[in-house]
Specification:
single chain; about 110 residues; mainly alpha
Length: about 110
């Protein structure tokens, strides 16, 4: 009898469904675009005066910024977002390592 009562109660008073989370609003990322374009301009105009470490550093920075922008605006599924996040992370670590190597080479070596 109690189980019939519970079933009937569940049918008459179903649990309210959680409302779906609205998609997050993606900003315009003007600052990211400005930094990406400024980094590209520095790399293009300073290419001949840079050594190989600086060139690799700027390329890694551009890859990281471009993949961050792509992840925020172009990704349609979880797999793409994961790959762009990994590419961004790896290239940012490479840029940091190259920057530390450059600083060490200029000031301590």
């Amino acid at each position: 009898m109690a189980s019939i009562r519970r079933k009937l109660f569940k049918k008459l008073n179903p649990k309210p469904k959680k409302p779906e989370k609205p998609p997050e609003k993606i900003g315009k990322d003007y600052l990211l675009i400005a930094i990406l374009s400024l980094t590209t301009i520095f790399m293009v105009f300073g290419w001949e005066s840079f050594d190989n470490t600086n060139r690799a550093l700027y390329v890694a920075l551009i890859i990281s910024l471009a993949s961050t922008y792509s992840r925020r605006h172009l990704c349609k599924n979880e797999m793409q977002e994961t790959w762009f996040e990994r590419i961004s992370f790896v290239s940012m670590i490479a840029a940091i390592v190259l920057f530390v190597m450059e600083i060490y080479g200029k000031f301590f070596a």
